[in-house]
Structure formats: structure tokens, C-alpha cells
Amino acid sequence: xxxxxxxVLGETWALPLGVGxxxxxxxxxxxxxxxxxxxxxxxxFVLLAGVLVALSVSLPRRGSRDRT
Amino acid sequence: MxxxxxxxxxxxxxxxxxxxxxxxxxxxxxxxxxWRDALLGALAAVVALAVVAGVVGPVLLASLPLDLLRVVxxxxxxxFGLEWLRKGVLRLAGRRAPSNSLRExxxxxxxxxxxxxPEPGRADWPARVVAFKxxxxxxxxxVLIVAALSGGxxxxxxxxxxxxxxxxxVIGIGAVVHRPLARLPESHLKYAVGVMxxxxxxxxxxxxxxVHWPGGDAGLLYVAVALVAVSQAQIARVAAT
Lengths: 68, 241
Prior knowledge:
The complex is a heterodimer.
Chain A: H1 2-9, H2 14-33, H3 37-58
Chain B: H1 2-32, H2 35-62, H3 66-92, H4 101-114, H5 125-150, H6 157-176, H7 179-183, H8 186-208, H9 219-240
């Protein structure tokens, strides 16, 4: 089971949590602004920014001694 | 056409790299124990994977509305792609050992040699189980990635073509082993696959939520450029800490 969990969710909880938050943000914004032009034209960049933040947060921070 | 080619390339690279890892395990079992038991274990895993593919593919492709399918595909690709990208950043920053199927092959060989040999005439169950588990776990990721890429706007053709090319290439490498395994820049290739899968993930997720990418399929390219720029900055930051 741990091998399967690692296969699907990876080695850190930060990434699946980050992806979940990006999905939740996208669903909320789509529900709130689904008919607005800004969401239709620029929503992808909002999601991309969320993904880039999720990636950055999942990496070791300054001073961390984590050598995975 | 851009998306079609990128999906085929992404499928070929990700499937090829996963199959190389499975190949390393099967070769190690075959060389140290017995080829018959290694191939029996691998074959059983292939049958199990065919069953999974027969369930996952049709469920994903046929039973979900198109927008929901794109959201599911996008999230699945992001989960795989970002994990590959995170590991790629750590490897290229020197914070994780480089990916190397030849090293995995040698380590697996050493582990198999440490096991007691089977009694003469008896089945070598440890060898079968190691080959089965290795092929099943690597193959499961292959099935999920190909199924996710098949659910995109370009249909299944580019993903299946890319996967087919990868299977042929890995079988070719298996026939001559050792040197090609040692020469492959696996860490860089896995980093590139992470960028590609993550790009498809963001692209499909946004499309599933009704978002239009300026430039259509060309959106994949600038999404990939953004991922490369941020991950390269992270490589420099992590390497400096």
C-alpha cells in the first residue's frame, strides 16, 4: 500500500495538497466568474501561478537539511 | 499539431524511462537467479497491467463528460508531472542522487545474489515476486500516464504511438544492455518529462474549467517555458542552500 501511495501521491504531501488547492481555487473561481471574460481569457495563468507556487513550496527551504 | 507532437513525445519519454527501470529489475533477476522465473514474474505483471488498462482506459475515456474528463486528466498529470519535476530539481541541484538505471540494475543484482538459491527443481518464488512487483509498479505509472494523455483533446492516438515507440526502444536497449543504460542522461530526461507532464496537466485542467488559452495549443509552449524558468530558478536556489 505504501508503494501504491508513493506512486500516486509521490514522496511529499506538499504536492498533492498544492494540486488539490489549485483545483479547489479553479472550481471556486469558475463557479464565481465562469461567465466573466477575464476568467475565460486569463484563468489559465491564475492556475499556472498556483501550480508554480505548489512546486516551489514542495522544495526544501533555506536552512533545511533534508537531502532526499 | 503542436499538442499532438508534444503528447506523443511526452508519452514516449515517460513510458521509456519507466520501462527502463522495469527492465533493470527484470535483467537483474534474470542474470542472478533464472531467466525463466524473471520472465514469468514480468509476464504475470503485464497480464495484471492489461486488466488495469482495460478498466482504467474505457472508464476514463467513455464514461465522463468531456470537461470533467479534462479536469480529471489535468489533475492526474499534475500529480505525476510535478513529482517528476520536484525530483528533477533536487537531482539537478545535487540534493538527490542522479537517476541511473544501470546503478539500479547493479543494486538489484547485489540484493538478489544475497538471497539463498532455490532448491533444485523448485520454483524460485523470490525471483518471480521481485520481477512481478518491479514491472507492476513501474507499469502502473505507465498505464496511468498513457490513459491520462489519451484523455486530452487530441485523443488516444499520439499517446499510444509515443508509448509504442518507447516500448520498441526499450526492448532494443534490453537486447544490448549495459552501455546504453550507462550513457542515458536520465536525470535530465526525467526533468524534461516532469516539465511536459506538468504543462499538459495545467493546460487540460484549465480547459476543463472553461478557460481559453491565448494562441490555442501554443499555450502548451508558454506554460512549459514558465515551468522551466521557475524550476531552473529553484535549482539554483536549492543548490545554493
